[in-house]
Task: structure prediction
Amino acid sequence: GGSSLTTTGAGTITIPETSLATGGGLPDAANSTDIGVLLNGATLFGGGAIAITGTGSKAATGQQNPGVRITNGSSIASSLASGTAISITGTGGANNSHGINMTDVNSTIGAPAMTGGISLTSLTGPLAFSGTVETEGTVFLNSAGRVSDGGSGIVTAGSLGVIADGAVSLLDTNVSTVAVQITGGGALQLTNNGALSIGTVNN
Result:
């Protein structure tokens, strides 16, 4: 199993590279990759904000060298009621690697009763998630490449904002308001369950 970290106070959980429940920039030999932060079956719950930052290796060869990889049923949630409750920032390394990559359907960012915002930012490379991103507040996806739900990812939120320098493919959303800005060209695919209002991206 993975690591588990829970706080009940209002303090911030900060996970940079080389910290608890991360790959620490060390090679993941099974996947021939060098990950900035690896959450592998990890559970993080904070009474305050959670901030995760990782950078994939620019020198490593092999498959992907993502900034942040979330996999194997990992769960990240916060009870912070307002503002940005969960912030994940990733910089992809060599081989056009993802800045952020959630690789399995059982991993989750957020929770049904969560009201704070979720911000996922890929400073270099695509942003992809195959699991669930959920809050009653706002989900903001900002990517230096494309944004993709991998065909199985789900976004449930009060509102959704997306900025991408590439194609956007979100095929299972449940939001009331959405705003999308594609800066580098590429198609937009978005399928929402229920009524939808079009908003404005404020970055």
Confidence is low (pLDDT under 50) at residues 18-32. The longest strand covers residues 168-182. The CA atoms of residues 91 and 99 lie 4 Å apart.
